[in-house]
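Entry under discussion copied across for reference:
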Amino acid sequence: MALWDVFKNAGNRLKNYVYAKMLNGYTPVFSQFGDSIYSSDVVQNCIDIIATECSKLQPRHIRTDSSGMQTTPKSSLNRLFRYGPNPIMTTRDFLEKTIWLLFLNFNAFIYPTFVSINDPKSGNEMRTYTGFYPLNPRQVDFLQDDAGTLFVKLYFSNGESFTLPYRDVIHLRKKFSVNDIMGGGMNGQPDNSALLKVLQINDVLLQGLEKGIKTSMSIRGIIKINTIADDDSLKAERRRFEERMASGDTGILPVDLKGEYTPINSDPKMIDRDTLQFLQSKAQNWFGVSAPIISGDYTDEQYQAFYEKTLEPIVLGLGQAFTKCLFTDREQDVGNEIVFYQRDMFYLSTNAKLNLLKIAGEQGLLTDNQKLALLGYPPIEGGEKRTMSLNYIDVDLANAYQMGRAKADKGVSKVE
């Protein structure tokens, strides 16, 4: 089924819409264009690294019971997360595209398709989800009906528009600040004016560097013709000079008495490395991506800092936005949620992996297959069992053991 057919079935059900009332008095009509900074290679590198890292996340539908035990139900959501959220994307593709849209527009909209039935026992709506589609609308309007229900009207570049209940759309926001409902600036668009100044300076310096190199390789000298000549004579003299240059096998240019050749010692001043690195670091700091992360030559501590500063807020936002849209209040109350687990910890050094295996393995936190996966080995049959060290004991048992020993020692001393 085409995505447009999905929208036609889901949207435009109600007709009596008015613009939603905003606290700041603005009309909630937002354009999604905001790509003035994205021609910069530094910006594209930063966003690409963030999107690539987020594409390694593993989304799961989990359920936590009253005792805190977590299970992974066999739901339509987990099937989609595992095999592909829609017919044309893998889970990695879906996550990467979503993050790119988020950074391009500071807003990302995802529409979950579903089949709805009523539970015969409770009469409540039950949804079986069939796909997730990241959207890139040209314009977004927020509307409400007579009952005050919020709707979102999405306009696309092909001229189509669809009105959907806002509660049925997953909405991710970046730099959610002065606008009541959209990420970015007051107009619901990316506010990149501060970064744009830095990128413009960087572009001017790079252009100057390019022109300096071209200049140093082009003009070699000036020929002064010691005679009064008309335009035709000057052109003829120039052609004769160029022919002499072309035929100078020894590198010595013969010039007659009428001409005087003055060489130019070109010494263009290049931009120093520190200045260029400073400007690039300003752009990298804007996105929270350090130079070692860009180059891929990072330590465990540097990646951990990158994760906590830049990736973790995105991971938490994804889980909360999906959970809020996909589950009713009742379903959330009984422990249903979407969690985006961070990628397997292959970025750790060998020593860090061994330390993790020692600490987590001795506590019985990892299965044998999880230990193998951490080292890059495939799972083995029967590897789902957990083993732990006997060097650890429950605190209550340790106290009881110590008390028993104390009583035994006291009894021995009395006999003596």
User: Anything to note?
Assistant: Residues 347-408 form one domain. The radius of gyration is 33 Å. Residues 226 and 299 are 67 Å apart (CA to CA).
